[in-house]
Amino acid sequence: MLQVGSALVSLDVIERFFICDLEKCLGACCIEGDAGAPVSEEECRKLKEILPVIWDDLLPEAKAVIERQGVAYVDEEGDLVTSIVNGKDCVFTCYGKNGMCQCAVEKAFREGKIDFYKPVSCHLYPVRLKEYKDFAAVNYHRWKICKAAEVLGRREKVRVYEFLKEPLIRRFGEKWYNDLCEVAEAYLKEYGK
Q: Three-state SS for 129?
């Protein structure tokens, strides 16, 4: 781990390569797993606020879940997460061409209908944050469904922290990201990675 400001960054975030390869995975991270994406109370309020705008893009099963339990719930670990359908699919999943999963929230943002991109945890994936009292742990979540992303990242020589520049700046700020780049470059040079 390397410390950057008040965050501890896993070496995997710096050493490993990654570029989402949606043509290969079709957005499987939105429909696989056993819990929804972590959200803050503020993000949960925002999701409720924008719900009428994205409602028509949601699947009938997702609408039923939202009507029954809302846009989010507290999971087994006590974290607030987006609601899911059938124990795995995010309720905000919609589908595009070739069956590719899309985020209805991000779709509406890109169409200029709303001013909220999507939850930070989704934007940051494959990085997962663990918030503590005095610091945040920034970890790379390796998942077999993202193998194609690792292959593409290695081929293009793009590391996890480089691929996630925009969401890392969104969460931690530009100065923090610039500091991360300095620390990462020094580490990679010293250890020949």
A: strand
